[in-house]
Design goal:
Layout (H helix, E strand, L loop, with lengths): L7 E5 L6 H10 L11 E7 L3 H11 L8 H7 L1 H8 L12 E9 L9 E13 L2 E12 L2 E12 L21 E8 L1 H11 L9 H4 L11 H12 L5 E6 L7 E8 L2 E5 L5 E7 L1
Parallel strand pairs: 1-2
Antiparallel strand pairs: 2-4, 3-6, 3-8, 4-5, 5-6, 7-9, 8-11, 9-10, 10-11
Helix pairs in contact: 1-4, 3-7
Protein name: MaoC like domain-containing protein
GO cellular component, one term: fatty acid synthase complex
InterPro entries: Fatty_acid_synthase, HotDog_dom_sf, MaoC-like_dom
């Protein structure tokens, strides 16, 4: 359940702003990174936009009419920005590092159905790298959660840090088999931005990526997730992804699978994105 009282912001779906004004506010926001307060946004009357979804499916390689797990995140990105630009949330959204995302489908979703959507701040842990925190998105129908995602992010903190280290899962030996290839150019990132609404400048051009410390734009993590899911080409109810390293464009990679294991690897065989699916 989300926090109670003043920590919960309530809106109807038709009150969600467009992505570009939210991105502009995110760029302008100033904040000293610190632990996030208990905060949530509740959206009533949320419906997946079928026209936007079809453009997303066509570009990412999904079948027409499908509702991929990755789209749960993409469709609610404006709500994520709505939360992060709040004055009492000590986050500079463009300074966040996306560590990973997981999905769970509890019941089939319909494009014809209206849902209640809740986004809330989840677990937080200070590590040697900074503050790791979760944003939890949940879709409800008649008071029952039917789908959720958990997005894991990192904030770099000023000053001394705790000596704890991020939790690492045990390594599993996989017998990888190639199931797909990707080749990304800067133009692909700009096209994905126009479809997904994610206009973070770090992805768009080498000149806009430079102020963030990169000599080239980096691929949208959620575009990589979409390409990996599309390559599987089978119904899934659970999937989790970990972003291992930034993917600078232009780039090529191989999507590989072994059972529930899935990864995107570079030409040197190193994992760019690691995943588990079922």
């Amino acid at each position: 359940m989300p926090p109670q009282g003043n920590a919960v912001l309530q809106y109807h779906a038709n009150q969600i702003p467009a992505s570009i004004p939210l991105i502009a506010r995110a760029i302008m926001k100033r904040a000293v990174p610190a632990e996030l307060p208990e905060k949530a946004i509740e959206i009533t009357g949320f419906r997946f936009d079928q026209s936007k979804l079809e453009k997303y499916n066509a570009f990412c390689g999904f079948a027409s009419g499908s509702l991929p797990l990755s789209y749960l995140f993409v469709a609610t990105q404006p709500v994520q920005l709505m939360l992060l630009i709040q004055r009492d949330v000590p986050v500079k959204p463009l300074g966040m590092i996306h560590l990973g995302v997981s999905f769970e489908l509890l019941q089939p979703l319909s494009l014809e159905q209206e849902y209640d959507f809740t986004l809330k701040v989840g677990d937080q842990q200070e590590t040697i790298k900074g503050l790791e925190f979760e944003l939890i998105g949940e879709f409800y129908l008649a008071g029952q959660c039917v789908a959720r995602y958990v997005s894991r992010c990192l904030l770099k903190l000023d000053g001394p840090r705790k000596r704890g280290r991020p939790t690492r899962e045990p390594k599993i030996a996989y017998d990888w088999k190639a199931i797909g290839q990707i080749a990304l150019e800067e133009a692909d990132a700009r096209r994905y931005a126009s479809i997904s609404g994610d206009y973070n400048p770090i992805h768009l051009h080498r000149l806009t990526a430079k102020p963030f410390g990169f000599d080239a734009p980096i691929a949208h993590g959620m575009y990589l997730v979409a390409k990996m899911l599309a390559s599987v080409n089978e119904p899934l109810t659970q999937a989790s992804f970990q972003f291992q390293r930034p993917v600078l464009m232009p780039c090529t990679g191989t999507i590989e699978r072994d059972g529930e294991g899935l990864r995107l690897a570079n030409e040197a065989g190193k994992a760019l994105v690691a995943a588990k699916i079922s």
